[in-house]
Write a structure and sequence with these properties.
The chain is an alpha/beta fold and about 280 residues long. It has 2 domains: about 5-55, Spermidine Synthase, Chain: A, domain 2, CATH 2.30.140.10; about 60-275, Rossmann fold (3-Layer(aba) Sandwich), CATH 3.40.50. Helix content is about 30%, strand content about 35%. The strands form 2 sheets. The protein has a 7-stranded mixed sheet with strand order 8-7-6-9-10-12-11, sandwiched between helices. Strands 1-2-3-4-5 form a 5-stranded antiparallel sheet. Helix 5 (about 170-180) runs parallel beside helix 6. It is globular, with a radius of gyration of 18 Å. The structure holds spermidine (SPD). Spermidine (SPD) binds near residues 53, 84 and 86.
């Protein structure tokens, strides 16, 4: 008998994959964590029954959350990743030889343990000596750390329910900004424009209030089912057009998707979003 798992996106929409097997199911004080093997997308991680990442399309997400910031920030020596417990974002950051120190702060140790065990193809840089993993609250980290300032801060959280909720508000964005170098670049995943447009618009507007401007960008991520996914880029002084040619050339030779042309195209804002942001 075929076994499927459907993510329930709202009362009208589900996104399902046929499973080969369930590899792990666990629950802790924060959330439920599962890893499944699927016919179409390979192994995949779910948090609170929501698809987070899959072997087959993870690069479409991780390259996009990382490289627009890393090819434009004036310096990329010190990077902070909030969330990102599957290790995919850290892997992409650590491709750059200029990176000296990465703090990855993930609230749920189970996500890291399970990802190391079942998704080693995604988190393939756990042993890099530049990576420092802390299991703890990213919001408190940003407030209290004396390891700042960071050149790049990346927020790779799940959706705005459960422990990730606090990653979607002005106090958190403000604290991030205060922990960054002058030209530092902040990027957060910022949800779907089809199913969660209100959340997306609210995030972009709030980030713009804090940083002075915000640049949402868009690209498809198959696993997130609603078509286009979004991230939002912000900096006090750096613009997304400030491409460092050497870094762009270097990374474009090893990425699966990201390149200069994609970088230049993804910041185009669809009119229906533009009108809401106006
Ligand atoms: N709707 C899913 C949003 C998930 C964003 N983060 C995914 C984590 C991948 N590292």
């Amino acid at each position: 008998m075929a076994v499927w798992y459907d993510e329930v996106l709202n009362e009208n929409v589900r996104f399902g994959l046929r499973l080969k097997e369930t590899l792990f199911m666990g629950e802790n004080e924060y959330q439920t964590v599962s890893v499944v093997d699927t016919h179409e997308m390979g192994r995949a991680l779910l948090i609170d029954d929501l698809w987070m990442t899959s072997e087959r399309d993870e690069k479409g997400y991780h390259e996009m959350i990382v490289h627009p910031a890393m090819t434009t920030a004036p310096k990329i020596e010190r990077v902070l990743i909030i969330g990102g417990g599957d290790g995919g974002t850290a892997r992409e950051v650590l491709r750059y030889p200029d990176v000296k120190h990465v703090d990855l702060v993930e609230i749920d140790g189970m996500v890291v343990d399970v990802s190391k065990k079942y998704l080693p193809m995604i988190g393939s840089a756990w042993d890099d000596p530049r990576l420092h993993v802390t299991i703890g609250d990213g919001i408190a980290w940003v407030k209290n750390t004396d390891l700042a300032p960071y050149d790049v801060i990346l927020v790779d959280g799940s959706d705005p329910v459960g422990p990730a909720e606090g990653l979607f508000n002005k106090t958190f964005y403000q604290a991030c900004m205060e922990r960054m170098t002058e030209g530092g670049v902040f990027v957060t995943q910022s949800e779907s424009t089809m199913l969660f447009l209100d959340t997306h618009v609210e995030m972009v507007k709030t980030i713009a209030e804090v940083f002075g401007s915000a640049h949402p960008y868009y690209r498809d991520v198959f696993l997130y089912s609603a078509g286009t996914w979004s991230w939002t880029y912000a900096s006090k002084t750096t613009k997304p057009t400030a491409i460092n040619d050497d870094r762009m050339k270097f990374i474009s030779e090893i990425t699966e998707i990201y390149n200069r042309e994609i970088h230049l195209g993804i910041f185009a804002v669809p009119n229906f979003v533009r009108r809401r942001l106006a």
